[in-house]
Write a structure and sequence with these properties.
mainly beta; four-stranded mixed beta sheet; 1 helix; 2% helix
């Protein structure tokens, strides 16, 4: 008994989608199944698949459909059994990057550091997370390379005291910036006394020098004396003077 083939139907996840139009995000896939009509036809049931635009939407021999790039026009996926065909249309779309976020929008670095200028890498987050655009930064730039530089991987390196803006730009023109303040820290403090031996009730100058002079960090100093009965330092911070009170030895300490 011969049961001739009369048609073809396309199924996705068990649902008949013949003639439907569906969307598919770039990089994603789904699998189609083609069934002969009637199912018990005695004709050849071999299925072949074809895409009207394989550069936008591909389909392999197993019916796996993959979106490759965005297209304004739907792509036709055709299933053929014998001389019968069925079609669905797939519109491939992309999810574009709407904005980018840096892990920091403000950063402080040391122009000298302990052994070398400080550096820190900026990290980028793309919004939305499922964007199909290339998740990469096209350019990193600095507003002032004499203050801070930035490498292709977003690593910021301090150069000299000052402020600079580091800006990242994506392939589709989204931008974000981080303000970088480069500081120069205090290396040392010097205390220079007019005399190291003084008489009771004698007042002498005690000069404080910060190295380097152009340090940009907080230069607030704290003064202390280990024996306040011997030496009065109440005027040291405001006038740079100390006064002997009675015989003995006292040590003055300044801290930044």
């Amino acid at each position: 008994v011969v049961i001739p083939l009369t048609g073809v139907e396309i199924y996705k996840d068990g649902t008949n989608v013949t003639g439907n139009t569906m969307q598919l995000v770039k990089g994603n896939s789904f699998t189609l199944k083609a069934s002969p009509v009637p199912a018990d036809t005695t004709d050849d049931k071999t299925v072949t698949w074809e895409s009207s635009d394989p550069t936008s939407v591909s389909v392999n021999d197993d019916g796996v459909v993959t979106a490759l790039k965005e297209s304004t026009e739907p792509v036709t996926i055709t299933a053929k059994i014998g001389n019968k065909t069925a079609e669905i249309k797939v519109t491939p779309k992309e999810i574009h990057i709407e904005s980018i976020i840096l892990n920091k929008n403000y950063m402080k670095l040391d122009a000298k550091g302990l052994t070398a200028p400080e550096k820190e890498q900026l990290k980028v987050t793309y919004v939305p997370e499922n964007a199909t655009d290339a998740k990469q930064i096209k350019t990193w730039s600095t507003s002032d390379s004499t203050v801070a530089t930035v490498s292709a991987d977003g690593t910021v390196t301090a150069v000299a005291a000052g402020t600079a803006n580091i800006t990242a730009v994506t392939e589709n023109g989204k931008t974000v910036s981080c303000e970088v303040v480069v500081e120069k820290h205090i290396d040392s403090i010097e205390l220079t006394a007019a005399k190291t031996t003084i008489k009771r009730k004698e007042t002498v100058d005690l000069t404080t020098v910060i190295n380097p002079e152009d340090a940009t960090v907080d230069k607030t100093l704290e003064y202390s004396v280990d024996n306040a009965d011997i030496l009065d330092i109440s005027k040291l911070e405001t006038e740079g003077k100390v006064t002997g009170l009675k015989e003995g030895t006292a040590t003055v300490t300044v801290t930044a």
